[in-house]
Each structure stands twice: as structure tokens, then as C-alpha cells.
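Dear colleagues,

As part of the handover before I leave the project, I'm documenting each prediction I ran so the next person doesn't have to rerun anything. This entry is a single chain, and its sequence is reproduced below.
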Amino acid sequence: MTVASILAAKGRNVLTAGPDTPLSAIIDSLARHKVGAIVVTNAAGAVVGIVSERDIVREIAGRGAGVLDEPVANCMTRKVVSCAESDTVNDVMNVMTVNRFRHLPVVSNGRLAGIVSIGDVVKRKIEQVERDAEEMRNYIATA
């Protein structure tokens, strides 16, 4: 099972913002769209950062509410870890676990192609376990 199969099921829409977007507007988008992260892209569509709810909470806690008027570029994670559509669900789960984040942009040919969340990955793993169990039951019943 690959990242491509996750994107085929959930779609490729990704909430994005430009690096100059005020942090207050980012918060508004997160709440309105009920998502946990926004990918920051440049005018060419290349990923230049990612900002999550955790990033915002840390900034407010460390520097105060004044950061809400600053551009997201001041708060975002710049060294974005991403994955490819050919990566397996196990690969992605490992990357998310080791790095302790819940959202992973999918990049293809240098451009944003989608995003997977830990919820997407867990859902796929559960589906796979259920399929494997059903196959085992069928095998035992016909043996």
C-alpha cells in the first residue's frame, strides 16, 4: 500500500498559504477548515514550509500574542520533511513516528501533490489488518 493509494481515496486538495500570510489568517484557516497544518508554498508552488497548530502554540507561548500579526514565515518549519507517492504506508508511518509530526506533504517533481496525516495512515493500516484477517478466515474455512 502506497501514499498514492491514500491520495486516490482522499483526494489531493491541500490547504496552502504564502509565506507573507499573517499568522492570524493561518489560525482562521485552520479552524475554518478543521485541519491541523497548512503547507506554505511560494509563487511557483514549491513547498517552502509547513505550520501546524503546535508551531503556533509554541510561538504564542514563547513570544506572546503579538506574533499573530507577523507573517507565517516567522513561525513555520522551514526544513520540511516530505514523502513521495511511491512511499509505502509503513515508510510514512515510520517517518511520522520518528520525527513526531502528524502531517507529511507529498511532493512530486518538486511540487506539492497532496498531504497525508497520521489519521490517513492509521486508517489504511486498520483496513489492511481487517483484509488480512478476512483472508486468513477464508483460507482456514476452505482448508
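The domain at 3-142 is CATH 3.10.580.10 (CBS-domain). The chain has a mean pLDDT of 92.

All the best with the project,
I.
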